[in-house]
């Protein structure tokens, strides 16, 4: 770990992802929900999604994605940041277990909770570790076994959410290098926390002495209100991130990667930003909404497919519970997905 921090920037040097092998199609869901393939596709853009098998936890997904990112980077890390909404247990954090299983020993490791904006909040945190000299290489993993907190009988959420993990390795470098992380625009509005929440299981419900009502242990989302706020916040933060990067507006992006929440939201945001269809990265059709993992998985898959290549100006944005949102802009480096 270096003591010097002047002029240090965090540079992406490795990337990888992992999706559980079990695939759930829209047809599978129609066998237990009052829905249809056409209804799901027209409202979400999703045809299939991946789901953890019984006994598989967030840490299992995170370890595999982290291993692939470390292989891509050709080295280890002296800190691990895990962005997740579905830790293996309330206490302790899941990141130290992941670090141990990856053979990283006693490095600093902790969880970040910002729901679907977790990857960007984690990116800002990891970049800060490197800029301050606290770490030289940080493994940032975003992982969620989101289906474990979804009510299987709730058509509004069961068709959208899925499981997966993505990871990047960041190293100390220069601010003008491809892959350097600049300003990450972040925001939140706790006054609207009711729009996306799991009502039961936390200290407020537990300290009340009242048992949770049926279904309060599951994720809830006020879809219509979330749609409006997601479009507004992702659009505004994307404009701010492009300006911070010195670009001539968001439309200067060669590639646009938004949290894969819903195809309608993605199209509206990209249209509002003036980004043409061929520049939009998307995997929602066969991956769904994987929570904190969404952006990381999208980047890893796009890099592996070649739709995201070295030199592309990349604009990233996300929105989730909190409410919390974020965006950043960077030039994609020459990395091969693990």
Automatic annotation (TrEMBL):
It catalyses: malonyl-[ACP] + acetyl-CoA + H(+) = 3-oxobutanoyl-[ACP] + CO2 + CoA. GO terms for cellular component: cytoplasm. PANTHER family: 3-OXOACYL-[ACYL-CARRIER-PROTEIN] SYNTHASE 3 (PTHR34069), BETA-KETOACYL-[ACYL-CARRIER-PROTEIN] SYNTHASE III (PTHR34069:SF2). Homodimer. InterPro entries: ACP_syn_III_C, ACP_syn_III_N, FabH, Thiolase-like. It comes from Streptomyces corchorusii (Streptomyces chibaensis). Catalyzes the condensation reaction of fatty acid synthesis by the addition to an acyl acceptor of two carbons from malonyl-ACP. Catalyzes the first condensation reaction which initiates fatty acid synthesis and may therefore play a role in governing the total rate of fatty acid production. Possesses both acetoacetyl-ACP synthase and acetyl transacylase activities. Its substrate specificity determines the biosynthesis of branched-chain and/or straight-chain of fatty acids. One of its GO terms (molecular function) is beta-ketoacyl-acyl-carrier-protein synthase III activity. This is Beta-ketoacyl-[acyl-carrier-protein] synthase III. Residues 110-190 form the Beta-ketoacyl-[acyl-carrier-protein] synthase III N-terminal domain. The keyword Lipid biosynthesis applies. Pathway: Lipid metabolism; fatty acid biosynthesis. It is found in: Cytoplasm. Keywords: Acyltransferase, Cytoplasm, Fatty acid biosynthesis, Fatty acid metabolism, Lipid biosynthesis, Lipid metabolism, Multifunctional enzyme, Transferase.
């Amino acid at each position: 770990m270096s003591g010097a921090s002047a002029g240090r920037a965090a540079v992406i040097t490795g990337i990888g992802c992992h999706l559980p092998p079990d695939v759930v199609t829209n047809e599978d869901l129609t066998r237990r929900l009052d829905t249809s393939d056409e209804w799901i596709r027209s409202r979400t853009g999703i045809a299939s999604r991946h789901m953890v098998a019984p006994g598989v936890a967030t840490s299992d997904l995170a370890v595999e994605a982290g291993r692939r990112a470390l292989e891509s980077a050709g080295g280890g890390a002296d800190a691990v940041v895990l962005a997740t909404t579905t830790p293996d247990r309330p206490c302790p954090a899941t990141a130290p277990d992941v670090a141990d299983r990856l053979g990283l020993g006693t490095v600093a490791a902790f969880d970040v909770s910002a729901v679907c904006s977790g990857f960007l909040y984690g990116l800002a945190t990891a970049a800060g570790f490197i800029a301050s000299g606290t770490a030289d290489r940080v493994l940032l993993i975003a992982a969620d076994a989101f289906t474990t907190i979804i009510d299987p009988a709730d058509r509004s959420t069961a068709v959208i959410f899925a499981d997966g993990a993505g990871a990047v390795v960041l190293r100390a470098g220069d601010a003008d290098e491809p892959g350097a992380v600049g300003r990450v625009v972040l925001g939140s509005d706790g006054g609207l926390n009711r729009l996306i929440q799991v009502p039961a299981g936390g200290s407020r419900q537990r300290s009340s002495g009242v048992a949770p009502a049926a279904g309060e242990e599951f994720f809830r989302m006020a879809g219509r209100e979330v749609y409006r706020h997601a479009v507004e916040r992702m659009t505004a933060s994307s404009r701010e991130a492009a300006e911070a990067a010195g670009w001539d507006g968001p439309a200067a992006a060669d590639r646009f990667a938004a949290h894969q929440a819903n195809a309608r939201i993605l199209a509206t945001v990209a249209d509002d930003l003036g980004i043409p269809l061929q520049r939009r990265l998307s995997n929602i059709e066969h991956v769904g909404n994987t929570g904190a993992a969404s952006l990381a998985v999208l980047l890893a898959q796009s890099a592996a497919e070649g739709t995201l290549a070295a030199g592309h100006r990349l604009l990233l944005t996300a929105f989730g519970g909190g409410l919390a949102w974020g965006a950043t802009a960077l030039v994609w480096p020459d990395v091969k997905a693990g």
